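Lab meeting notes turned into a lecture example. A postdoc, R.K., suggested we walk through two folding results consecutively so the class can see how the record format repeats. The first protein's sequence and structure tokens come next.
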Amino acid sequence: MKKWKQFGFFAFLGILLTVVISCTNSTQNSLTKETQEIEFWTMQLQPQFTNYFNNSIAQFEAENPGVKVRWVDVPWSAMESKILAAVSAKTAPDVVNLNPDFAALLAERNAWLELDDLVAESERSTYLPKIWQASQLDNKTFGIPWYLTTQITVYNTELFQKAGIEKPPATYGELAEVAKTIKEKTGKYAFFVTFLSDDSSQVLESFVQMGVELVDGEGKAAFNTPKGKAAFQYWVDLYQNGLLPQEVLTQGHQRGIQLYQGGETAMLFSGPEFIGTIAQNAPTIAKVSQTAPQITGETGKKGVAVMNLVIPRQTDVPELAIQFALFITNDRNQLAFAKEANILPSTLKALEDSYFQNVPEGGTDKDRARIVSASQMAQGEVLISAIEDLKKLKEAIYDNLQAAMLGDKTVDIALADAAQQWNERD
């Protein structure tokens, strides 16, 4: 009888524990359902924009009770390694700020959600069409456009006057003529552009602006053509005729900024954000500087650099992550961030705001640069679309172009070797 009493007691205890555990699990599940977290990574936006993002996140959380956003800002130089490690370890955040070039590398590995069926056409149509296409690989969308920058021409009016040049060049053909005149009349170089493949895509973009097709539909080299030869010859002639500084082969874009600020070049091809840098570092040069649209070729195309937001496929909250990405990149928030950061928005409505259309009364050089920059968006696009092994393409073209500039190869051989190097890549 005593054993049966003990058995009854333990049976009752077991039932009680089962009820308690069940209630506990039910409470935890309830909490999980009530509280959802989004982890959001950006690239080097703290501390300058901390207040902006804290306010934006607070607004999103207020509009979505029970949602918490954890914002993590990653240094620019560390983002690639950190996101690669996170994706590999299956600890990726829910929303990540990248650029299409790097994001495409992981899109090849199926790391991001495909968004074509997850973002409504009514949402997609609010963005600049060509900018939306920048985050596509094989016609599949892997990212949502965010903020943009576009190159402009900053030029030294004093050197232009000494050379007898009335206006800055608009095309690469005019640029070659201006480079020759400035060197003859002032002894200065007209501009600096780097041929280091890991520093800048400007030379490769010039090929596209000149009408060169880089790769065909099958991914094979398409630049070994008369237009490709003309593009190679253009840069070879400038260098061999002494119209480019010799260090274009060994130094990066930063050297171009230094030369312009030192009054050693007549033009700087860079983003409008450098207007403030020039004013701070070289006020004398800033006083004689003006801005003009980006140099282009026969296509009239203007290059744009894009930052986007991607959603890792590993996310536990895909719908909420997309909702947050669309919130951060909507018209209102893009306009507000553009004003904070001196960049361009990727939505049509925000770009139509008067802030990007008219120089205010008593406007500054930065205001004028912003208007010039925004005016190019009608022709603006990402000139080099996301393709597999883009880094190897740049290396093949830049390495052989440098060999031709140095006289180690003829233009014909350099062009053929570049095409072969690309087609036979590992």
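The second example is placed directly after the first for contrast:
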Amino acid sequence: MEQLLIISPYESNKIRDRADRSPWITIHLYKAQSNQNNPSLDKLDLHTIPVRYPVLHVPRALIVQLNLFAGQLYIDAYDDYLEICNFLGIAAEVITEEMAASGWGIAADGFIMSDSNGGVGGDSGLTTSPLKFIKMLMTKIRRNGESIDKTDMGSLLEGKILASSHFQN
């Protein structure tokens, strides 16, 4: 059974020797992408201790959550955007008149107030919008008060819908 545990660099340094000798422990380097010119490190394949083959496969849903809570500001692919929207319970596309007539309602921040089945938050399981918390996490805690408005996540947290053409792949 594979398990994924997120630890700090300090904790990683404490177990490094044990990881080198263990057939079960692998340490993966990770840093949230905060600059669009830097590559994303979310495949967890940049640097591992010890080197293992085949490279770990982590489900995309978990990587999206890791990126979100680590403060990643850029989204690489439209599928990741859809996964983020699903996780946060926000609309990933503009609500059409037909959708509105069938019961869809969206809050100003993009949170799904009701879908065609009357559900709140889509498939996320959330009943209230998490966007204020996520914005606070990203701006105040992860970025020390710096603005994120011109980033993918800044746009998403402001309730803007991103089209598939926005993404490179």
